[in-house]
Amino acid sequence: MAKSFVPLIAVLCVSLLPLAAMAVGTPFHIEGCVYCDTCRFGFETIATKYIRGPQSDICQDRVKLKTELVGVAVTGPDGKYKVAVRGDRQDQQCLAELVHSPMSHCQEADPGRSTATVILTRSNGAASTRHYANAMGFFRDEALHGCAALRKRYLADGDVRAI
């Protein structure tokens, strides 16, 4: 009877050992993007411009309300960022939070899109180390010419491919 458990134990050890090693040494990667809401709609549109260079701080614990900076993300030319964060945070809700925009006419953070929550844990069954944050945005000082017509097209559920 004891002999039948030996192969099972061997298989479990061989399959779980790489997962345990990955959990200890492999960082999480948070990926997201930052944009300028050129129409001040509060969401991304075809008129949205993605911002190169804005800074986002990664991680404020929303439950304990303490700031624990574990990474700083700076976007590339396409407005996207990727930052590595070491360590499993269990149930901590990490916030990616906008810090500033390099665009002079797009400095006001959209209150509804200035943070993005990411949970960095392997204990919830997530196999990937890549976690995606919702897009974060700044408002343009004044809406672009043509945004009123774009709004009408969105509300009419019409063709919105061109502004």
What's this, in brief?
18% of the residues lie in helices and 34% in strands. The protein is α+β, with helices and mostly antiparallel strands and 163 residues long.
Topology:
Blueprint: H1 5-25, E1 28-37, E2 49-50, E3 55-61, E4 66-74, E5 80-85, E6 93-100, E7 108-109, E8 115-119, E9 130-132, E10 136-139, H2 147-155
Parallel strand pairs: 1-9, 1-10
Antiparallel strand pairs: 1-2, 1-5, 3-4, 3-6, 6-8, 7-10
Characterization of this structure:
The protein starts with a helix and ends in an 8-residue tail after the last helix. Residues 4-22 have low confidence and may be disordered. It has helices spanning 5-25, 147-155, and strands spanning 28-37, 49-50, 55-61, 66-74, 80-85, 93-100, 108-109, 115-119, 130-132, 136-139. The chain has 163 residues and is of the alpha+beta class. It has one domain (27-155): Immunoglobulin-like.
Which tags fit this structure?
Immunoglobulin-like, alpha+beta, about 160 residues, four-stranded antiparallel β-sheet, six-stranded mixed β-sheet, 2 helices
Distance between the termini: 74 Å
| Strand percent estimate | 25-35%
Q: Helix share of residues?
A: 10-25%
Query: Mean of the pLDDT scores?
Result: 77
CATH architecture call: Sandwich
Q: What order do the SSEs take from the amino end to the carboxyl end, as H and E?
A: HEEEEEEEEEEH
Based on secondary structure, the structural category is: alpha+beta
Quaternary state reads single chain
CATH superfamily: Immunoglobulins
Give the strand tally: 10
Q: What is the number of domains?
A: 1
Major sheet, described briefly?
Answer: 6 strands, mixed
Unreliable spans: 4-22
User: Looking at the structure, what is the overall shape?
Assistant: elongated
CATH class designation: Mainly Beta
Give the CATH topology: Immunoglobulin-like
